[in-house]
Amino acid sequence: MNISDLSFKSIFKFWLPLMATWLMMSVEGPFISAIIARMAEPKYNLAAYGVAFSFALIIEAPVIMLMSASTALVKNKLTFKKLRNFSYILSIAITLLMVVLVIPPVFYFIAQDLIELPDKVAHLTHIACIVLLPWPGTIGYRRFYQGILIKNNLTRRVAYGTVVRLASMAITALVFYLFFDVHGVIVGAAALSMGVTMEAIVSKIMVVGTLKKIYNDNTSSETISYKEIYDFYLPLAMTSILTLGVHPMVTFFIGQSRMALESLAILPVLNSLVFIFRSIGLSFQEVPIAILGDKFEGYKELKKFGIIMGLASIAILGIISLTPLSTIWYHNVSGLSMELTNFAQTPTIIMTLMPGLTFLISFQRAILVASRETKPITTATAMEVIGIIGGLFVLINLFDFVGVTAAVVAYIFGRLLANVYLTPPYMKIVKKKIS
Predict the structure, then answer these.
(1) 396 touches 257 (CB < 8 A)
(2) Positive or negative CA dihedral for 147, 150, 154, 160?
(3) pTM for the whole thing?
(4) Which end of the chain has fewer CB atoms within 10 angstroms, the N or the C?
(5) In this structure, how many other beta carbons lie within 10 angstroms of the beta carbon of residue 62?
(6) Would you give the distance in Å from CA 362 to the centre of its chain?
(7) How far is CA 244 from CA 54, 55, 238, in A?
(8) At how many degrees (to 10) do helices 403-434 and 338-350 cross?
């Protein structure tokens, strides 16, 4: 892509496959949950699936940002090899951490003594975690290679990989569901593991030609040390860990709130709706990293694109939240009672700002990553987490808010804190680059 000729249309064409990838991934959870819900003992298996998936996500957290890292850092053969080795070591390390987790004395200490899961749920969760052993390391492997595809204007191939992931996941789930007499949680875990494994294999196959070009390209002599990679990546890893770690705290505070049961019942459904629109903003982060240009030649067009799409995502979610479409989503599609449907409407209206704030933070982070200034990202995320937890504590304990309302207000407040904190370093970099 010629950076000097960037337009709304060219940016949209580059970004569209990444957006499609995130949107496709957003249907993964509801599909598997629907399968498990139709099998024996759905209450226990759905609970176990949720806990096992949470464990896998937390352990996966350190490798989530490898896509951004490879998009930003892989310039030539040397930088590729250094970051590849770093990515492989990190992926192996988190796989070993997953292995330690499933050692029975370790697992049951966490599941029963710390979390206090019922015995049956703990047993099913343990089985699921064993089946999910390939998940974290495979995620790191494929995100590293997907970043290289994005860097080389091959975003469609990332979407193709996600299609393979969803297809293999769905086939695995349906085969187990139709032909094997196993626990529902095993069906879910096996489908997830098969999906990400196939996606990783396909991603590596699709990047082979690009790697040959990188190996044969002698135009760049840029180098990077392992210490520089570590210093660059540690703040990104901490960002993911902090982001994923806040969710159990939100659940804890809601459990202590007024109308806790109703709040806990609608929060996952609310989050699944909002995530569809948040995912559009999250998918934008790699776009500026890839096509911003060494001297920020694409900054103005990318900024304009982000503003337009951010406002559009707010508007569309706003239309849903403020019209009978919200009733269709919560009652007809998600199956909530009319009581819970009405209960969900106010929190949904509050959350309409989140997609726009997600576009903003994705653009801010992209500018910092492209400039290799990643430390402010971690600090901003820490401030967001503190804002969410602090907001929940104040709203629930001092103002007696309904749990889910307190949660969505705290989410917005925390994200605004992060956006405000990132503004000065973001503006400093922009002024330096385009002056």
Answers:
(1) yes
(2) positive
(3) 0.83
(4) C
(5) 22
(6) 12
(7) 9, 10, 10
(8) 30
CA distances (Å), origin 311, targets 103, 203, 357? 48, 33, 9
- Tokens 């749990």: give the residue: 403
How many of the other CB atoms lie within 10 Å of CB of 128?
29
Which candidate, 309, 305, 426, places its Cα nearest to that of 374?
426
CB half-sphere exposure, 265, CA atoms < 13 A: 15
CA-based nearest residue to 382, from 248, 253, 246: 246
Count how many residues are written for the chain. Answer: 435
Q: What is the residue-wise DSSP string for 279-341?
A: HHHHTTTHHHHHHS-TT-TTHHHHHHHHHHHHHHHHHHHHHHHHSTHHHIIIIIIT---HHHH
Q: Which residues contact 17 (CB under 8 A, 6 or more apart)?
A: 155, 156, 157, 158, 159
Contact between residue 285 and residue 306 where contact means Cβ atoms under 8 Å apart: no
- Other beta carbons within 10 Å of 83: 25
DSSP string computed for 1-24: --GGG--HHHHHHHHHHHHHHHHH
Asked whether the beta carbons of 36 and 53 are under 8 A apart, the reply is no
- Three-state SS for 229? helix
Rounded-to-integer distance, Cα 175 and Cα 179, Å: 6
Instruction: Yes or no: say if 23 and 279 are a contact pair by the CB < 8 Å rule.
Output: yes
> In a structure prediction context, what are the per-residue pLDDT tens digits for the chain, which is 435 residues long?
566 678 899 999 999 998 988 888 877 877 787 788 777 877 777 777 877 887 888 888 899 989 989 998 988 889 999 999 999 999 999 999 999 999 999 998 988 887 677 788 889 889 999 999 999 999 999 999 999 999 888 989 999 998 999 999 999 999 998 888 888 889 989 999 999 999 999 999 999 999 998 888 777 777 889 999 999 999 988 888 888 778 777 877 887 788 877 777 777 778 878 888 998 998 998 899 988 888 888 899 999 999 999 999 999 999 999 999 999 888 887 667 788 888 889 999 999 999 999 999 999 999 999 898 989 999 999 999 999 999 999 999 999 898 889 999 999 999 999 999 999 999 999 988 876
For residue 153, the SS3 value is coil
Q: Please, what is the angle between helix 226-255 and helix 77-102, to 10°?
A: 40
